[in-house]
Amino acid sequence: MQRTKQSTRFWLALVIFGLTGQVAWVVENMYFNVFIYQMFHASAGAISAMVSASAVAATVTTLLIGALSDKVGRRKAFICGGYILWGLSIAAFSLVRTDVLGALFPAVSTAALGVTVVIVLDCVMTFFGSSANDACFNAWLTDSTDRTNRGAAEGINAMMPLVAILVVFGGFMSFDLSLASSWTTIFLIIGGAVVLMGILGLFLIEDRAVAIPENKHYFRNIVYGFRPSVMRQNPVLYATLLAFAVFGISIQIFMPYLILYYSVSLGMTDYVLIMAPAIIVASVATAFYGRLYDRFGFFRSVAPALLLLLAGYGVLYFCRATVPVFIGSLLMMTGYLAGMAVFGAMLRDHTPEKKAGMFQGLRIVAQVLIPGIIGPAIGAAVLKNADTVLNNDGTTSFIPNVNIFLAAAVAALFVWVALVLVLRLKKKGESTREA
After folding, report:
1. Gap between the Cα atoms of 433 and 417, Å rounded
2. What is the pTM of this model?
3. The CATH number of domain 10-208+215-434 is 1.10.3720.10
C-alpha cells in the first residue's frame, strides 16, 4: 500500500501543538506534584487525589467536547480557543501562594487550603486543556491521517511527552523550586507560551472536513462508545483499550512520584543533566519506532516496547548509582513512549470512520481516567509507610522509594494477558471476514 504523503504544514502543526500541549501536561502531571509537595507539603494521598480528580475532569471534558466537535464538524476553533484559555488558566496558578492565601484566609491553614485550591484549579485547567488537546487535537490527528501513515505520525506524537519533559527540565533547571517566586515565573512563562500557540494555530492549522454524524443527537453521541452494540461491532478496539488502560496503570504508579524519587530519594540535585541524554535518546528512538507499526503491525511492535519497559523497571528497582539509574531510565522511557506510539496507532486504525470525536472520550477513559485513578492510588498505597523527612516548619514529607517500580512491573505483566485477548479477537475477526 502506497503511503499517503502529508504536507509540511501538517507536520509543523503536529510538532508545535503536540509539543506545546505536552509541555503544559508535564507541568500539570509532574510539576504540580512537586509544587504542592514543596509549597504545601502535600502527602502521597493528596497527590493521588489531585491526579485522580484531574483524570475525571479530563474524561468528562473529552466526552462532552469530542462529541460536540463531531456535531459541529470543526476542530480548529476548539483547538485554538482551548489553547488560549488553557494558557490563561495555567498562568492563574501564579497567584496560588502562601502569602496570597494567608492574606485572603488568615484563619485557615495555608497548607491544607493550598492543596485544595490547586486541586480545584487543576480541574479547571484540565477542562480547557482536554477540550483543546485530548478531544479536538487528537480527533484532528485522526482525521488527518490514514492507515498508511498513522504509525509515523504517532511516532512523532508519542515522543512529545519526553521532549516536553526535556524542555521543561532544561528551561527551569536553574530555578530553585523551594521558592514561591520560581513557581510564579514558571506558571507565567508556560501559560504565556500556550496562549501564543493558540493564536498561532489560527493561521497554521488546516481544518479537515469532518463528516457530520448521521445521528445528530448530541447526548446520544456522548455515550455512543459505551453502548453494548457498539462494543460488539468493534471488539478489537475495546480489547486494545483494555490493554492500553493496564499499560497506563503501570506508568501512573510511579510517574507522579518520579521527580521526587530522583531529587529526594536519590539526592540527585543535577538529575536534569543526568536525565536529559536519556530523554533525547528515547525520544529519537520513538520517532523511528512508530514506523515499525506501519511495517510489522501491532503485536510485533508492542512486544519489544513492553520488554524495554520491564527491563527499565528492573534496573531502577535494583540500582541506585548514577550510571545504572540513567540506563534504567532510558530503557523505561523508551519502552513507555514506544508503547504509547503503538497503542495510539492501533486505536486510530480501529476507530470507526466519521466518529473520531465521539471516540476520543473513550480513549481518555483508557489513557487517563482508569490509569489516573488506579495507578496513583496503588503508588500511594505502596508509599504509605515510606520514610519521612522533617521540613523546616516542623512538618514532615514522605520519601518515595523503589517499591513504586516493583508495583509498576507487576502491573505491566498484566498487559500481556490483555494482549492475548486482543490477538484472539483480531484472529477471530480476520477468520470471519475470510469466511
Report:
1. 25
2. 0.73
3. no
